[in-house]
């Protein structure tokens, strides 16, 4: 018998697959290692958590949220040492981490080469958002899992972040293998997000205030410079070097072709999902765009991707890569 099947029945004794197990931190860490999702309480809001190094699991998070775009996700870790393994720390980053971790502050930093957070969790960016949450259950899960955990707020897209166990269950509970009840969230507002890339920049206000941060690292620039370039968005989007051609039937000379579905194979073809699985395609997307650039392609041609479900987010991201929308 398949040993994985054993574990599944242990986590879901009735085998129904619709209700998450109200489990322990160890069961949650085990589910994460298996590529499954966990409803995770933090002191700010509940998160829908996945192994940040597993693009299939991260794709399942985007699918469960119905995110219209691949917003980069926050990587949660147990302590600052674990954070240094995935992000490059500047002196300012060290100061803010020492002052506010564990706690409701997220730092956007250059990604550590070889770090475990996958391209999809970072939405293809060379930066990574990292935080050490303070909630005791979240801390236990992170210690037991011993790796970065990607966790956006557990709401479905366009809805407010859940701050109680019941709200979290009703939002995305169906997608979770294990759900941890940590009671009502103490902060109830998402973490403060500060980028430390060029000048320190406040991307999202939160419980850790501008004044508290400025007292330690000096004036914070506004996020507006980026927001003006792409209205309504606080983050830059990854775009490949090579021009992107959408709805293509195959590669022209010099192009790399991103296929979808069973039809094509060949040296210039990278297949996002031979079986036509949107979660698999999402998991491969940013990695393949980067791979096409690494091969020195003169262009990237992409097969039509169905617009349904996760396809909307994939197409949104592809249209951005093609420069069709800002
Ligand atoms: O309190 C919180 O931060 C909660 C709990 C679960 O930790 N999480 C949360 O995640 O609010 P989410 O995905 O809903 O919000 C993450 C924010 C988004 O605004 C995203 O654009 C930004 O962080 N972000 C993540 N990575 C980024 C990056 N590399 N550069 C700029 N912004 C980034
Ligand atoms: Mg959110």
* CATH superfamily label of the largest domain: DHBP synthase
- Tally the structural domains: 2
Order of helices and strands: HEHEEHEHHEEHEHEEEHHEEEHEH
Mean pLDDT: 87
Q: Give the oligomeric state.
A: single chain
Indicate the proportion of strand residues.
15-25%
Uncertain segments: 1-17, 225-235
Bound molecules: threonylcarbamoyladenylate, magnesium ion
According to DSSP, the number of beta strands is 14
The largest β sheet comes out as: 10 strands, mixed
CATH architecture of the largest domain: Alpha-Beta Complex
**So how many helices?**
11
How would you classify the helix and strand content by structural class? alpha/beta
Strands in their spatial order, largest beta sheet: 1-8-2-3-7-4-6-5-9-10
In CATH, the topology of the largest domain is named: DHBP synthase
Query: Can you tell me the overall shape?
Result: globular
Helix fraction by DSSP (H/I, runs of at least 4): 25-40%
Distance between the termini: 51 Å
Give the CATH class of the largest domain: Alpha Beta
Radius of gyration: 20 Å
């Amino acid at each position: 018998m398949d040993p994985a099947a054993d574990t599944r029945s242990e986590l879901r004794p009735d085998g129904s697959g619709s209700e998450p197990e109200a489990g322990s931190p160890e069961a949650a860490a085990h589910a994460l290692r298996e590529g499954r999702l966990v409803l995770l309480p933090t002191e700010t809001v509940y998160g829908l958590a996945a192994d940040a190094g597993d693009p299939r699991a991260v794709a399942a998070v985007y699918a469960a949220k119905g995110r219209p775009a691949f917003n980069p996700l926050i990587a949660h870790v147990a302590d600052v040492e674990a954070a240094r393994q995935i992000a490059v720390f500047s002196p300012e980053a060290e100061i803010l981490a020492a002052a506010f971790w564990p706690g409701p502050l997220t730092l956007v930093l250059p990604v550590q080469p070889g770090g475990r957070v996958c391209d999809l969790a970072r939405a293809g960016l060379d930066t990574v958002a990292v935080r050490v949450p303070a909630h005791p259950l979240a801390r236990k899960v992170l210690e037991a899992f011993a790796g970065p955990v990607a966790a956006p707020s557990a709401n479905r897209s366009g809805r407010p972040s859940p701050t109680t166990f019941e709200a979290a269950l009703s939002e995305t509970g169906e997608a979770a293998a294990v759900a941890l009840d940590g009671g009502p969230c103490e902060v109830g507002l998402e973490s403060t997000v500060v980028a430390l890339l060029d000048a320190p920049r406040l991307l999202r206000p939160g419980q850790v205030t501008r004044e508290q941060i400025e007292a330690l690292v000096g004036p914070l620039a506004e996020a507006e410079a980026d927001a003006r370039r792409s209205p309504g968005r606080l983050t830059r989007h990854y775009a490949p070097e090579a021009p992107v051609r959408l709805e293509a039937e195959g590669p022209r000379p010099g192009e790399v072709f991103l296929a979808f579905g069973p039809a094509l194979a060949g040296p210039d073809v990278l297949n996002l999902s031979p079986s036509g699985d949107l979660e698999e395609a999402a998991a491969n997307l940013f990695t393949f765009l980067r791979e096409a650039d690494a091969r020195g392609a003169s262009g990237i041609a992409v097969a039509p991707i169905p617009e349904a479900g996760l396809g909307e987010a994939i197409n949104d991201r592809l249209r951005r890569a093609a420069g069709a929308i800002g």
